[in-house]
Design a protein that fits this description.
Radius of gyration: 29 Å
Number of helices: 10
Number of strands: 16
CATH superfamily of the largest domain: Endonuclease Chain A
Structural class: alpha/beta
Distance between the termini: 138 Å
Strand content: 15-25%
Length: about 325
């Protein structure tokens, strides 16, 4: 009988180590928002390069609402952006400025820019705003008309304030299709024809020390009454006013009699006050500034599409104070 075969003992079973479990992926962290910034552009001192640079910086989109557009450099930047595939949309006024805007409309439309004649429901669309990539907006007193660049006092405020930029874009989207909207005010926006009268009246009524004002037009009795009331409260009122042809002399005489210090400009071919600003209580803790497209006129406040902002950025207040004070000193005392 053959011996029984023997087998070596089986090797002990190998136990595979268990990998350390990886934590479940969480949501991608949202980058912390950067600081809100405001940059003041003062015209005619600084020129338009800042605006050209802003337009040229767009990576995704440009939305513009403009009362008057005849700057061919702006038109070229817009059409070049559209040719690169950016979403470029422009609203141009037609109720007052269709004849002057038609050349720009034709060039933009031919360059594949989305261009829209403004809603005729407004007396006019006097707003002057540019928004880049849905993230940065320029809110301006100036039109994009080179004939005015070298001799006209104007301002623009460029901001990345997310609440304000979102509100501007929401309103642009409605206005681009003539849809009804009550514009959201974001953090600081002043829209016509919705909240501008109340906001500007509140700014003037809230002043306790001083008001420094620059205006192209002054014919609204409600704003006049608010300024007269400020003078009665012993608020120091300084007004730089365009008064071509003596158009606003009646209002100015009333304000001067009440104690306002007034300087006027009256030459469309010389230095022209086109800015619309109110600087309240400059140099105090409660100081605030309005810059925008709204004139002190009933149409501007109650019937037009307009946009400005009231805010308290120190750099912008310093810049406006410096420029408007110089204009007062250089103007003709009324």
């Amino acid at each position: 009988m053959s011996p029984k075969a023997t087998h070596p003992p089986a090797a002990p079973a190998q136990t595979k180590p268990h990998p350390t479990p990886k934590p479940a992926p969480g949501p991608t962290p949202t980058p912390a928002p950067g600081p809100v910034t405001y940059t003041l552009l003062t015209e005619p001192d600084q020129g338009l390069q800042t605006i050209y640079n802003l337009l040229s910086s767009a990576k995704k989109s440009i939305d513009m609402t403009m009362y008057e557009l005849s700057d061919t450099q702006v038109e070229t930047i817009l059409t070049a952006a559209a040719a690169k595939g950016l979403a470029v949309r422009v609203i141009l006024d037609q109720n007052n400025e269709k004849a002057n805007n038609t050349a720009a409309y034709t060039k933009l439309a031919g360059g594949k820019v989305g261009v829209h004649w403004a809603n005729p429901a407004y007396a006019c669309t006097h707003q002057k705003t540019i928004t880049i990539d849905g993230a940065t907006s320029a809110i301006m007193t100036l039109n994009l008309t080179p004939d005015d660049y070298t001799t006209t006092r104007d301002f623009a405020v460029i901001t990345n304030n997310p609440a304000d930029v979102a509100a501007i874009e929401a309103t642009f989207n409605a206005d681009y299709t003539n849809a009804a909207i009550t514009p959201p005010t974001g953090q600081s926006l002043v829209w016509s024809p919705t909240n501008s009268r109340a906001a500007l009246t509140a700014l003037i009524n809230g002043a306790t020390k001083s008001l420094l004002i620059s205006q192209e037009e002054f014919e609204d009795t409600g704003i006049q009454t608010a300024v007269e009331a400020a003078l009665k409260r012993k608020v120091a009122v300084t007004l730089v006013q365009e008064n071509l042809g003596g158009k606003y002399s009646s209002v100015l005489n009333t304000l001067k009699a009440a104690g306002a210090a007034i300087a006027i400009y009256s030459s469309k071919t010389g230095y022209y006050i086109h800015a619309k600003t109110v600087l309240a209580d400059y140099g105090t803790a409660q100081a605030s500034l309005f810059v925008g497209s709204e004139n002190f006129s009933t149409d501007s406040l109650d019937k037009n599409r307009e946009l400005g902002l009231i805010f308290d950025d120190a750099g912008c207040m310093n810049g406006v104070h410096t420029a408007v004070t110089a204009d007062y000193n250089n103007g003709t005392k009324f």
